Amino acid sequence: MKRSTKRFSVLISIVIAALLLTTACSSNKASGGKDDKGTIKIGVLASLTGALESYGKQTKNGFEMGLDYATDGKREINGKKIKVVYEDTETKPEVAVKKATKLLEEDNVDFLVGSSSSADTLAVLPLAEEYKKIMIVEPAVADSITGADFNKYIFRTARNSSQDAVAGAAAIAKPGVKIATLAPDYAFGRDGVAAFKEAAEKLGAKVIREEYADPAATDFTSNIQKIINAKPDYLFVVWSGANSPWKQIADMKVQDKGIKISTGAPDIAALSTMEPLVGMEGFSVYYYDLPNNKINEWLVSENKKRFNGEVPDLFTPGGMSAAISIVEALKKTDGNADSDKLIKTMEGMSFDTPKGKMTFRKEDHQALQSMYAIKLEKKDRVPYPVPVLIRELSPDETAPPIRVKK
């Protein structure tokens, strides 16, 4: 009899312990992923392998440095520790959704950040709304992220495609200037040209010829000859991919015919392919010695210190800006990660970044930011054409149209 009573007592103890554990887990999930010590969790989605691996790693490096910079190396806000969980999307939308769901359901993150690909990011946007979690978009550029597919939980520190187009136009468009365009014949190219044309014609220029080439083309002779025949003052090129038209543009001596070439300066690896375009005027999202501010000086110095003397590349400052935006918002809420409170705090919020001051526009949560009118020049002991500053394009100059559905 005593043995049965003892067994019954043990069973009751096990049941009570299980109930307490279940209650604690449920409480932890309901609290938005913060443990008893008050941890704030951030889930970062990035292409850490595959074709966009360099973009993802730059974003990750920048995010890590941004957290350290914004918290003075402590990685805590109002006594709450910051924990970051990274997930590789492999640049596949279905993988991005799976990884984001894992971050939201298993890791119970308070924020999402990402991703390297616009397709990955667009696939994840509905999850941010479903789980009511803030998502900082970096570095994906598709206009629809803060346009047709926007929801109130989305904030973007990355620039969008229209900002690129506005910056490209601001660099070369003036009253009376005639411009031709060359782009791949699919949505990326046609949308880019449409945004550029809208911005350029607002500044008084005229787009007199639009040429679209097969994205897989290796021979651009016909397209380039039609552009030469149109006799524009500038040729503005929207392109992405290894089969670029730069060599043929140089071989057909387009610049010798009085037509200036213009485009966006890419990351350092791609700059190495632009040797034929030395002397070109265009725009840059970021090159490490273009911004003149203390945060960028810190970033350049810290990047060299952490990564064997390497300078930050195109997407590093974006990762840093995303981290800074989260920390600054949490400072204003005293560490409260409630999404509704954060939305009210972040709408219209300005914060300092390696690119200067950014502001989340209230209407679409797009960060307004500086970009740079540049000229490609050769420099001693630099194995690629270097973007040299002509002038900084202000956040007001590069502000894109508001495209949110009403």
Automatic annotation (TrEMBL):
Taxonomic path:
Bacteria, Bacillati, Bacillota, Bacilli, Bacillales
Q: Which family does it belong to?
A: Belongs to the leucine-binding protein family.
Signal sequence, renumbered to the chain: 1-29
> What parts of the sequence cross the membrane?
none
Ranges in coiled-coil conformation = none
Question: How is this protein named in the record?
Answer: ABC transporter permease
The protein's superkingdom reads Bacteria
Keywords, sorted A to Z? Signal
UniProt domain Leucine-binding protein: residue ranges: 39-379
* Record-linked PANTHER family: LEUCINE-SPECIFIC-BINDING PROTEIN (PTHR30483), PERIPLASMIC BINDING PROTEIN OF ABC TRANSPORTER FOR NATURAL AMINO ACIDS (PTHR30483:SF6)
Among its keywords, does the record have Signal? yes
> Which species does this protein come from?
Heyndrickxia shackletonii
